[in-house]
Automatic annotation (TrEMBL):
The lineage of its organism: Bacteria, Bacillati, Actinomycetota, Actinomycetes, Micrococcales. Residues 16-314 form the FAD/NAD(P)-binding domain. It comes from the Bacteria. PANTHER family: ANAEROBIC GLYCEROL-3-PHOSPHATE DEHYDROGENASE SUBUNIT B. It holds the Pfam family Fer2_BFD. InterPro entries: BFD-like_2Fe2S-bd_dom, BFD-like_2Fe2S-bd_dom_sf, FAD/NAD-bd_sf, FAD/NAD-binding_dom, Metab_Enz_Cyan_OpOx_G3PDH, Opine_Oxase_asu/HCN_bsu. Residues 383-432 form the BFD-like [2Fe-2S]-binding domain. Keywords: Oxidoreductase. This is FAD-dependent oxidoreductase.
Length: 466
């Protein structure tokens, strides 16, 4: 069946399965379902499939440097060959009472409702950034954006870059920046994951991951890039032109300053679960990130029949785990739809691999653990919500009134009510409120639309969301 990209669609489309998200997990799920005979729609907000991990080079960059991650290009080709109906430049912004998906085009406002017997949510994740004084300066970005520039776009991010935050992703980003010709001043890690410990010995059960770590550390050592553990960014300082000029870090009781023109910082990733919340699946709250996580079985099935969470939307575990999760969800849906299912041997192999990758993700979280309370001790003048220009002091003042909970603070200050709808600041707002009130860290509930849309799109589907 031909793809349906960038075309005007009817007001309602029905499928056996709808996959939301064209990253690794969504691609695998769509391919497996279509290969088994299901009529599958794959909805992707961006102009091309691949997600963040399989972003593709274009034009002159592709011609000069070649394909980046060709396994992603191959997977996308398999999806198209399988007959998946692909809808790019299409945003899923809400759900109706019958759990249909409400969508609009990102290029020309329309309103299309997708209905299916099975919904696979593969919405990915966003980088988790904790505000600090100066984080809004030009020259401050996330590691993911730095990685994209250095690899997919093949450009130098800056002359001298500092990487800071926490998580194993900082290491491959540092190596990619070095390969692009950028000097890396240091990797500043809030945790102490490289410190020998009994828990760290568990990594011996994952030799492939250890080999990757050894390769990254060898590259950094060759370029004499220091890894400073147990440290965090204290402040980003501007030059006379208003651009980033230096970064001060706190390492124990010592403050150290690096002269850099670029800072790439984040504390790992936060699962994108807004659509799952709208679909009313049962979730637990990750108190560290202030984000709900869906409760699923080993195949990604949620508490709502026919709704599956895969990839990073189910929990952060990396590309390899995402692909396995997509396969397992497709296997369960094939059985649900009465289609041919994988052999018992294939199923056992994928379940074992999924369990191993999940165990490694848990181990990584434990090894990279750090004191997040220190991150919330930012000065009152720190701009927490950049969309609405709300400071940490304003959030604390609202929380200390005594009768305000997390949502009341949001309403009083508008923190989290801007264009990004809390994707950048919601976790920090929750943490600040919790620190002031003593209440457990809450999460910002999902609201429709999950992202800004044209008013015309909402009005066209008014009856569906009433």
């Amino acid at each position: 069946m031909a793809a349906s990209e960038d075309t005007v669609a009817p007001s309602r489309l029905d499928f056996d399965a709808v996959v939301v998200g064209g990253g690794p997990s969504g691609l695998v799920a769509a391919r497996e379902l279509a290969t088994a005979g299901a009529r599958v729609a794959l909805i992707e907000e961006n102009s091309e499939l691949g997600g963040q991990y399989y972003k593709r080079r274009r034009g002159q960059v592709l011609a000069q440097y070649g394909d980046y991650r060709p396994d992603g290009t191959s997977l996308i080709a398999q999806v198209r060959h399988a007959g998946v109906e692909v809808f790019t430049n299409r945003l899923v912004w809400g759900t109706s009472t019958d759990r249909s998906l409400l969508t609009t085009s990102t290029t020309s406002p329309d309103a299309v409702r997708f209905s299916a017997r099975a919904i696979v949510v593969a919405a990915g994740a966003t980088e988790h950034v904790v505000p600090f004084p100066g984080w809004q300066l030009p020259g401050v970005m996330t590691p993911g954006h730095a990685m994209h520039l250095a690899t997919t776009d093949a450009v130098r991010v800056g002359n001298r870059v500092l990487l800071a935050g926490s998580g194993p992703f900082l290491l491959p980003v540092a190596c990619a920046l070095l390969a692009s010709g950028t000097e890396v001043a240091a990797v500043v890690e809030a945790g102490r994951p490289l410190r020998p410990s009994l828990r760290a010995a568990g990594s011996l059960r994952h030799p492939g991951m250890l080999a990757d770590l050894a390769r990254y550390l060898t590259i950094l050592a060759k370029h004499r890039v220091p890894i400073i553990q147990g440290a965090r960014v204290h402040e980003a300082l501007a030059q006379g032109n208003g651009h980033l000029g230096a970064v001060a870090i706190t390492h124990g009781q010592v403050t150290r300053t690096f002269e850099v023109d670029t800072l790439a910082t984040a504390f790992g990733f936060r699962p994108a679960t807004e659509l799952l919340q709208l679909l009313e699946v049962d979730c637990t709250v990750d108190a560290t990130l202030g984000v709900p996580l869906p409760v699923t079985d080993a195949h990604g099935a949620t508490s709502v029949p026919g709704v599956y969470a895969v990839g990073e939307s189910r929990g952060i575990a990396g590309n390899k785990a995402a692909r396995v999760r997509g396969w397992l969800a497709a296997a369960a849906i094939r059985d649900r739809l009465g289609l041919p299912t994988p052999s018992a041997q294939q199923m056992r192999a994928h379940l074992r691999r999924s369990a191993r990758l999940d165990a490694f993700a848990t181990l990584s979280s434990e090894l990279y653990a750090h004191d997040r309370r220190a991150l919330l001790q930012m000065p009152d003048h720190t701009m927490v919500c950049r969309c609405e220009s709300v400071t940490a002091g304003e959030i604390r003042a609202a929380a200390r009134l005594g009768w305000n909970d997390r949502n009341s603070v949001k309403g009083a200050t508008r923190a989290g009510m801007g264009l990004c709808q809390g994707r950048e600041c919601a976790a920090t707002v929750s943490g600040l409120v919790s620190a002031c009130t003593g209440e457990p860290v809450g999460c910002q509930p999902a609201r429709m639309p999950v992202k800004p849309i044209p008013v015309s799109a909402a009005m066209a589907l008014e009856e569906e969301i009433a």
